[in-house]
Amino acid sequence: MLPARLPELASPESATALVEQLLGDPGIDGVKLFTGSWATRDRIVVMPTDVVRAAVEAAHRRGKPVFAHPSNSAGALAALEGGVDVLAHTFPAGPAWDRALPRRMSEASMALVPTLKLWPWELGRYGVPAVAIERTQASAEAQLRAFVDAGGQVIFGTDVGYMTDYDPTDEYLLLQRAGLGFPRSSPR
To answer: Ramachandran region of residue 112, left (φ > 0), alpha (ψ -120 to 50) or beta?
Structure first.
């Protein structure tokens, strides 16, 4: 849960107005939308695509990027169809994820900040059993692998500030476990 209630975008018009207002502040460099928001422990509310698209268009008119927090496949699809630039987090919530999304995201030049460390941290603080955490983590890693295999751009990042663990080491290790590594250069 976030420490404060965020504004809700109820219509394309309200999305446009809020983004224009926020980006009027010279200290604001981008927008993050919760295209999939946890309403309760068991329910995710997905932002309508037309609302996402209006927010994205307003930000892009000012040359600013848009990030999205998807929570599940439906939230990722809303971000994709709305034209979001960067998906901030994989989307392992739910029984299954749409396996076409990583390829479609790559084709749309949407980047991904996987934040793999977020899932064990978040689920652990809610007392979720280890087997369920591992299943969620495996799903997040599979999404990342599918995205990379499709040629997608990965951006390193963590949820530091939301998470209280500021050490990025676990994120690097989880990226490695998901099959990522440094490109090897050819010998000279």
So the answer is: beta
Helix H or strand E segment including 86: strand 86-88
The reply to whether 183 falls in a domain is: no
Task: Work out whether strand 43-46 and strand 36-40 pair parallel, antiparallel, or are unpaired.
Answer: antiparallel
pTM of the entire predicted model: 0.89
pLDDT digits (tens, 9 = 90+) for 57-95: 999 999 999 999 999 999 999 999 999 999 999 998 776
The tokens of 133 are what? 């955490």
Output the domain CATH number for residue 53. 3.20.20.140
Domain count of the fold of the chain: 1
Domain membership of residue 83 as a residue range: 30-177
Tokens of 100: 């076409």
